[in-house]
Design a protein that fits this description.
The chain has 222 residues and is an alpha+beta fold. The chain has helices at residues 32-40, 64-75, 151-158, 209-214; strands spanning 3-7, 11-16, 45-46, 55-61, 80-87, 95-105, 110-114, 122-133, 138-144, 182-190, 197-201. Strand 10 and strand 11 (197-201) form a beta hairpin.
Amino acid sequence: MPTILFEDSLLIAINKPAGMPAQADKTGDRPALQWAGEACGQDLHPVHRLDRPASGVLLLAKTKAAMAQLQRQFQAHAVEKEYLAVVSAPPPEAEGTLVHYLQKNAAKNRAFAAGAPAPDTERAELHYRLLGSSQRYHLVHIRLVTGRHHQIRAQLAAIGCPIKGDVKYGARRGNRDRSIHLHAWRLAFEHPGSGEWIELQAPLPEGDPVWEAMRSLLEPLA
């Protein structure tokens, strides 16, 4: 089940569990948008995307004006977006910046990463840092510069580091619950009403042995 991370008269933010759709989709499964609306007793407006198989911070607005103001911040790259990803192969360098040009294939619901611009592509940029490793997996901290469809998944796959469980992007096998080990860990933005700088952080999923093994590697970010 989701948990509420923040709520006031304009906003509500939740820690979305992996496997729950952020918004209604063709499966008919209960989306996070509906869950949060019932929790606060009113209709809500989506502000940004969070893939169904991923977990972490999902921000929702209580008014259309708040939604519009926050979406302008996302479009201007003024929102700080940090993710954690568990990968089976370490990146070629411990820290770096990735720039690709992504082409979205709507029929396959995936993005293809290229090293040079081409028609119908969008520039995608992120910064990453390897935080540490367990015996089998590696924890990568990601700071998004842009916010493209499946950006982290496609860019990590393009350098040979598919996310654990993400068979769509090259993982050898999926997780039993169809989740992927991608977590929207931190979101920071200017409050649409007060102008205050708000920082939200979503705890790692509990009960997952892989995430539990990675928990101690977060100390450098504390």
